[in-house]
Write a structure and sequence with these properties.
The structure is a homodimer of 408-residue chains. By secondary structure, chain A is of the alpha/beta class. Chain A has helices at residues 14-25, 57-60, 75-87, 97-114, 130-136, 152-163, 168-177, 186-189, 192-206, 225-233, 295-309, 318-323, 372-379, 399-407; strands spanning 5-10, 31-37, 52-53, 67-70, 91-94, 118-119, 143-149, 216-217, 236-247, 250-261, 273-280, 284-291, 332-341, 353-360, 363-371, 385-388, 395-396. Helix content of chain A is 35%, strand content 26%. In chain A, helix 4 (97-114) runs parallel beside helix 9 and helix 6 packs across helix 7. The longest helix of chain A has 18 residues, at 97-114. Chain A is globular. The N and C termini of chain A lie far apart (64 Å).
C-alpha cells in the first residue's frame, strides 16, 4: 500500500530547499525528489545541477513522476501547472493560497474528473493541520464557526508593535527580513492573505465555495497611534482576525482587526504563530496554534501531505455533499470601534446602535453596531481606522432590512 | 464503503446519554445504537426500556452489532469487555484511560490478532484530536516532545484557586459537582489520571509501550498557601504538566506541577480546558487546546471515532515499527522548587546544583537541579511540596552516574 513516490518540484526557494533537506533527513517518508523546475538559470544552486530543469514539461510529461509539488509565487502560473499535472495523471501538493482561493471549485472538479489528489495543508496557516482535521476529524456537520489569526507577518508586526513598542515600519521591515511577509506586503497588511486562507477554510468547514472577492477584508494598515494608546489603556491588544460562522442556513465570513483582552488566549499567540479556533455543537471550542509562516513550518505541512499521498490520501470534501449550496452573505451587523481625527466625518447617527465614544488629543473614536459593508467603506476613507470591539455581537440581518439601513 | 453501523454501548452515564442525543441530532454519522448494557436495574432511564439489557453477552454475542462502545468506570471490567468484543469480531470505541494505560500492549496485539479496530481518542484529553493527529499527520519520526495540561479537574481547581482565590477544598467540590473529577478525586489531584493519558500518548508519539507504574507522577495535593503566594508575587501561575521527550535514543516522561509565567500560553488554558504541545524538528511547536472533561467533549471524541469506523479507520501505530524498542528512562535531572516548613528537612547539599532559596514566615523554599526520582521521594514527605521551575533544564544522566548521586 505504501509506495515510494517520485516527486517533481516547482520552485527552489526556502520551502523547496527545506523540503529537500527534510526528505534527506527523515526515513519515515517514502518519497524522493527527482527534479526541480526553476525559472532562474543564474541563481547559485546548492545541490547538483542535474536536479534542475528550466522546462516545466520535463516534469509534467515525465511518466515516472507521481507527484508534482508546486512551490512558486505566481498564482496564475501555479494554477496552469497544477491543472496540467492532474490532467497528466499526477497528484499534486501545493501551498499557494491565492491560487487555491481563486480556483478552489476548479481544483475540486479536477480531482473528481481525473481521479487524482490535490492536497494543500500548507496553504492555510502553515504548519497547523487544520484542513486535515476539518476533513477527517470534524467530518460531521456540527461546526458552527471557525476563526483565528491566519497571517504570520501581520501577527509578527502587531506583536512587535505592542510588546516591544517598535514602530510599524520597523516591524514590517523585520518581518520581511525574516521571510514572513509576502513579496507584496500589502497582501498581508491589507488582509488579502488571511482572506484567501479563510476562503479555503470555509469550503472545508461548511462545504460552500466562496469567491475571495466576495469576502470583506479590513487590514492593519490604518491602525493609528491613538488606537494603540487606547488599547494599552484598556488592557487590550489588537489582532488581525479571520472568521466564518454558520448562522441558521447562511455562511458569513470576513477579516478585520479586533481589540482582544490581554488575558484572552489569542493575545498569547505571538509573532509568526497562527491560531485556529473551531467551535462545534459538541466538541465546543478547539484551538490549534502553530507557526504559520517560514520555510520549515510550511515545509512540514508539505511533507505531511506527501506522506499522506504514499497512503493514497484524498480530501473527500464531505461537507459539500452535506450542505448543498448554503448561501454566503455579508448582511451582518458587528460591533466596531471607528477612530478618526476630530470632526464630523462619522457621527453617532451613522451607527445602527451607537454605544459610546471618546474624544481627545485631536482624535475621536466611536463605538457601536454597524453593517459590515458600511465598515468596509469607512475603512477605505483617509485617516479612518476600523477595529472590531472585543465582543463583536454579530447579528445576521435579512437583506431587505439591510438595504434600508445602508441607504438611510 | 460507508456502512451503517450498529452499536452496543456499555454504560448509560453522562457520556452514554450524550452520545444517544448526539447521534439523534446529527445526520452525518451513519450509526445507530441498538442496545445499552447497564448494571443498575433501578436507575430511572430517560429512553425506552427496550434499549436496555443487564447482560453483557446480549451485546458481545449479538452478530448484528458491529461496534462496542465502552463507557464504564471499572477498568478491569472494561478490559474484559473490550477483549471479548474484539474476539467476537467487533470493533471497539472506548475512552477508559486507566484501562488503556494498563493494557495498551495487549490492546495493540488484540487488534493485530483479530484484525479489528480499537479507537480511543476520548481517552487522551477529551475533545482534543491528539491521537488522530499523532497517527495521521505527525506520522513521520520527527517529534521530539509532547507535553501539556492533560487533566481537566485539576486545571479547573488551579484556575479557581488562582483567579478566584477559592480555597482548594471548595474548588475540588465545584469540580466534582460539574462532573469533571474522577469518582476517586485522588486519581486527578495526585496526578495518576494525567499519567495514564501520558502513557497512551507516549505510545502514539514515540512508538514505545510504558507501564504506567514506571512513570513518575507528582500531584497538586501538597501545594501550600506559601507556594501560591510565591507564585502571585512572581507573576507565575501553577499548572499540572504531563510531558515526554525523546533525547538521543531514550524516552523520558513524567507528571508534575510547574510554575508557569502568566504571559505563557499555558497560563491562558483555563478551567476544564486541556492543552497538548507537540514539538517536532520541522513543524516546530504545535498547540492543541480543547475541553478535556465533561460529557459533550468526551462524547464528541467518541462520536468522531464512531464516524471513522464507518470508513474502516484503524490506528496504524507506525512509530512502533519505526522506533524499534527505545528504552524509557527516569534518569533525568530537572530544576524544581521545593518548599517545606523551616528546618533542615532538605538542604542545599541535597541538590545536584543549588540555585537559590527563600526563607520567611516559617517556610522555606529551595530551588535547583535534582534527580527526578529524588523529587518524587521528597514529594511523598509530609509538608513538602515540589513544583518544577519555569525552566526545567532537563538533563538526561547516564544511569551509573545517577546511582552515585541518589545514594550520596
Amino acid at each position: 500500500m505504501k509506495k515510494n513516490l517520485k516527486l517533481g518540484v516547482f520552485g527552489f526557494g526556502c520551502v523547496g530547499q527545506g523540503l529537500y533537506h527534510v526528505l534527506n533527513e527523515t526515513h519515515g517518508v517514502k518519497a524522493e525528489i527527482k527534479k526541480f523546475c526553476v525559472k532562474n538559470r543564474n541563481k547559485a544552486r546548492i545541490i547538483d545541477a542535474s536536479y534542475f530543469t528550466y522546462n516545466a514539461d520535463d516534469i509534467l510529461n515525465d511518466p515516472e513522476i507521481d507527484v508534482v509539488v508546486e512551490l512558486i509565487d505566481d498564482a496564475n502560473a501555479a494554477f496552469e501547472i497544477v491543472k496540467k499535472a492532474v490532467e497528466n495523471g499526477k497528484h499534486v501538493v501545493t501551498a499557494n493560497k491565492k491560487m487555491l482561493a481563486e480556483h478552489l471549485e476548479e481544483i475540486y472538479e479536477l480531482q473528481k474528473t481525473y481521479d487524482r489528489s490535490i492536497l494543500y495543508e500548507g496553504a492555510v496557516c502553515g504548519s497547523i493541520p487544520i484542513l486535515r482535521n476539518l476533513e477527517e476529524y470534524y467530518d460531521n456537520d456540527l461546526i458552527t464557526s471557525i476563526e483565528g489569526i491566519f497571517n504570520g507577518s501581520t501577527n509578527y508586526i502587531l506583536t512587535k508593535v505592542f510588546e516591544e513598542r517598535k514602530n510599524y515600519a520597523e516591524a514590517l521591515k523585520a518581518a520581511q527580513e525574516l521571510g514572513f511577509a509576502e513579496t507584496d506586503p500589502s497582501l498581508d497588511v491589507k488582509g488579502y492573505d488571511p482572506k484567501f486562507k479563510l476562503a479555503i477554510a470555509i469550503t472545508h468547514t461548511f462545504g460552500v465555495f466562496v469567491r475571495p472577492e466576495n469576502i470583506i477584508n479590513i487590514g492593519i494598515d490604518k491602525i493609528s497611534a491613538t488606537d494603540l494608546k487606547y488599547a494599552r489603556e484598556n488592557n487590550l491588544t489588537i489582532k488581525l482576525v479571520a472568521r466564518s460562522y454558520k448562522i441558521r442556513d447562511e455562511i458569513f465570513g470576513f477579516v478585520a482587526p479586533q481589540y482582544i483582552p490581554t488575558d484572552n488566549m489569542l493575545a498569547s499567540v505571538r509573532n509568526e504563530y497562527n491560531a485556529v479556533l473551531v467551535e462545534g455543537a459538541f466538541a465546543e471550542k478547539q484551538v490549534f496554534i502553530g507557526k504559520g509562516a517560514g520555510s520549515y513550518p510550511t515545509g512540514s505541512a508539505v511533507l505531511s501531505d506527501i506522506s499522506a499521498l504514499t497512503f493514497n490520501y484524498r480530501y473527500e470534501y464531505k461537507k459539500i455533499a452535506q450542505n448543498d449550496g448554503l448561501p454566503f452573505s455579508n448582511n451582518v451587523l458587528v460591533d466596531a470601534v471607528v477612530s478618526f481625527p476630530q470632526g464630523n466625518l462619522i457621527t453617532p447617527q451613522d451607527f445602527e446602535t451607537f454605544k459610546g465614544g471618546y474624544q481627545g488629543g485631536g482624535f475621536q473614536n466611536l463605538h457601536g453596531s454597524v453593517p459590515l459593508e458600511k465598515l468596509k467603506e469607512w475603512a477605505g476613507w483617509d485617516n479612518v481606522s476600523v477595529i472590531l470591539a472585543p465582543e463583536i455581537n454579530l447579528k445576521a440581518v435579512p437583506a431587505s432590512e439591510l438595504v434600508e439601513r445602508l441607504t438611510a
